[in-house]
Every structure is written in structure tokens, then in C-alpha cells.
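Recall that a protein's primary structure is simply its ordered list of amino acids. Everything else, from secondary elements to tertiary packing, is in principle encoded there. The following example makes that idea concrete.
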Amino acid sequence: MSTAPLSAEQGLPAHNEGWPGTQKLPHRGYLHRQSLCVFSLVATDVLAIALSLRLAIFLRAELVPRVDSAVPQAIFSFRHYLGFSWLWLLLVVLLAVEGLYTQRRTLWNEIAHLTKATVLGLIVIFAAIAVVQQGALLSRVTVLLTALILLVVLPTSRYWTKRGLGAVGLWKKRILIIGTTDTAQLAMRGLSSDPVLGYEVVGLLDEDPTRRGACIAVCGNKKVFVLGQLSDALKHIKKTGAKDVLIALPKLEEEKLLNLVHQLQQRCESIYVVPQLWGLPMMNLRVDGFLRERLMMLKLSNNLAKPWNSWLKRIFDLILGFVIALFALPVCLIVAALIRIDSGGPVLFIQERLGYKGTNFRCIKFRTMHVKSDEMLKSHLAGNPAAADEWYRYAKLREHDPRLTRMGSFLRRWSIDELPQLLNVLKGEMSLVGPRPYLPQERSRIGVDLFTILSSRPGMTGFWQVSGRNQLTLEDRVQLEAWYVRNWTVWFDCIILAKTFRTVLFPQNGRELGSFAVLDGKAEPAAHVGSPKVRSHSA
């Protein structure tokens, strides 16, 4: 198979025929499409608010009085609440203020802004009720229930609305990528795998003139080519109809980068610049600077070093951990009985692990292995060099582990074996979300990130478990977990918990790449594309 760039004779579109997706979009047509998208999102949000209000009225009338008999029966109908439509329009205004009709954000970033707008909307509505003295004509419980339901309904309805708009081509927005480095490929993967963003990569530009025509990747069923050099940027922006540009040239000289940004800024709606700071904490990053000196600064905060954040995380663990433990208790009793029936021996497996600030603790799990598992492991590794290498790289046996019992395989498949760790969480030895609880003998392999990882309580779940799980080496895991600690926020923990449920219910053998594959300049058909040649531990 040839690795040379495609030429016109090899299937590359001739210059006068245009590259894939290079037809110029009429400006008026683009404005019409944008207006339709905004109208559709506003209509979706209004319907979501109406649906949430209707459901809240039902719950207030049927469920709340049964839970608390002291609460009076609801007397206000849906039509009655429609008479206060100006209150609900305040929420739409707040959604607009958050840029939720004009800005493109990643899925979890959009959910964060939706949550913020909904909470602010609840506060504003309560304040407005108090100011106009309409408290007797509205149920505050119904308003509160409406806001809680909106936290689920709004993200869901907007997600599927954007998916639908994208399917008919209205939500798609063309973006040109400048650069073909590994960083550019990571950026392209991120753009292609998030349907909420709605970006369509129309091509890439590269400093090397010999790479013109190289097929870099396949996004969906569409090949992405190198269209030309950096000096052709303005021409290709006009030719492809790209509205946004992403610059991923980390090693480009500062002066050239500034000239490129200044040259393109007036021709684009947005320019993304990926700096040479891969792996830098970004959840707690703020941009600041001095106007007169035209100096930009990046402020990085260590959130877990602040006592109030540590207390907040602990309170979060106690409340949610207690609720989960109540629901998990019947399951644990059933599992304990099944373990005894399946293989005899003790129900629990208790092991010394590295804990918070270097203090060891006894980690509790359901036993998933045979009682003489250590002897079985030594024998298996001694007679199987491939398994020994796998054990060293991943600190576990991913494909076949002879130590597992029949019940143990089932428990690990659904992560039920970790439920007893809720006791560790309630005792303060672990957290619901955090780094993996490492073995004391793994201390030397963790290396320079040991202090960072041990500055957070180990977690029942963590960033590594939703970012590749068994596909990651121990070194990859360490990098991900150190990155989690440096980027910690309450919202980040919520994202990981949500992704954990998805990972447990819908486990995947590989990383989530969507329909994106990197060809690295090879003209391979989509059916023969292998895994992308990018760093597996990218976040």
C-alpha cells in the first residue's frame, strides 16, 4: 500500500473541481441556517420548560401529599401557571445570556452552562415572586420541582435537537485546521466526536508543500485532505466556506503565530489556538492579563489545596455515599450469599492500599478470586511470558485471569465487587471519585506524580476508568489520575460519575473514538483504517 500523498491521477480532486466539501456557502444561506438553528433551540427550550412544568404540577398534586401528609393538596392548574409566562421567559433570557443560543460548546461544557442558567433562573423566579407579592398564587414547591426536572430535560432535549439539526445539515459549521501534528489530530478527533459542537472539518493546511493532497483522516465517511500550505489560508477559508479556524502548530514561532492570527481574525467568526502546553490543567485555568502592557497570563488554581474545596468534596461523598449505600445494601446481602455458594471462603477481600497523604488503609471489596489466588498467579505468569508482560504493563490480566471465580467474573463485569468500598468512603478513607487505590509495592512505579496522586483520597471510580480502563497501561493511568487531581472541580466529579454509569452499563473494549480514524498521510480506504496514531492517554 502506497504511503505517498494522493495526486490528482490517484483520485485527488483536481484544483478546478474543488476539494471534498469545498463548495462556497452563500452568506445569506448561512445566516438563514443560523437563524433556523436559534429558532429551533428557543422553541425546544420553551417546550422543555412547558413539559417540566406539567410534570412538576403532576408530582406536586399526586406524589408530594403522599410523602408528606402535612402538605396541602395542589389547587393550581397548568393553565393557571401559563398566566405567569413572563416568569418562565426569564429563564429563556438567562439561557441566552449564557450564550446557549449563539456559542458552540462541548457536551459537558454546555450541560454545565445549562445547570448554571437553571439555578440562576430558579433564584430569579423566587425573587420575582417575592417582589410582585404573588407567592399566594404560585406554588414554590412546583417551581422548585420544575427546575429539578429541567436539569435533566433541558440537556436531553437540546442534545437531540442538535443531533436532528446536524442530520439535516443546519447545525453543521465548517472549520479549517492549520497543522497536521499529533496535536492537530487530537483536536480533529475531539471536533469530530462531539455532535453537540456540530463542526465539519473541511481540510488541513501544512507548512510542508509535499504533503498537499495527503489524506490525513476519515471523519465519518468523509476523507480529510491536506489542502495546501499556511500561505494559502485565506484562499482556502473562502474556497471551503469555513467560518472557524483551529491552529494546532505548537512549535510555530511566536511572531509567525501572531501574524497568522491577526491575518485570519477578520475573515473568521472564531479562531481556536492550541498552545504548546499539552496536559496543562484546564478545568481550573483562567485567562487574565494587563491591558496596557498587552500581556496575557494563565492562572492555574489547585482547588484541592483549598480547605473549603476539600470539605465540599467530603460532604459530597458523605451525602451521596450514604444514599447509594442504602440502595446497595440489599444487593450486597444477596451477593454475599452467592459468593459463599459459588466458591466458599470469605465473602470480603481486604487489602492494604496507599491512602490519602501516604497513609495506608484497608480497602474492602467483594472477593472475586479463588482463595489461593497468589499461588495461581505465580504459576500462571511463570508458564506464560505474554501474561507476565501484560501484568507488568497493565498491573492486571485483561483477557484471561485464571484466579477469577465464576461469580467473580460477573461481579467485575458489572463493577459490583467494589460496592463494599462505600464503607471506606463513609469512614473517610476513600472518595466516590478519585485516583485508583494503589498497592504499596506500586509506589516506585508511580514516580514523580506520587505526591500529586496521594494529595487526593483514592476513589471508587476515577478518570482512568472512564478513559480507557483496561486498555491503559499503568503509566497511562498515573498520568490521567495526576491530571484529574490538578483539574479537580465538583463538576468534574459529576461528569466522571455520570460517565461511570455509562461505562458500567455499556462497556466498550476500546476508547471512544466515534467515527474518526487517523490515516497519518496514508491513502487508505475507510474500511481498512486501524486505530489512530495518537497518544492513548490524551484527555
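The mean pLDDT is 81. Residues 305-369+404-508 form one domain.
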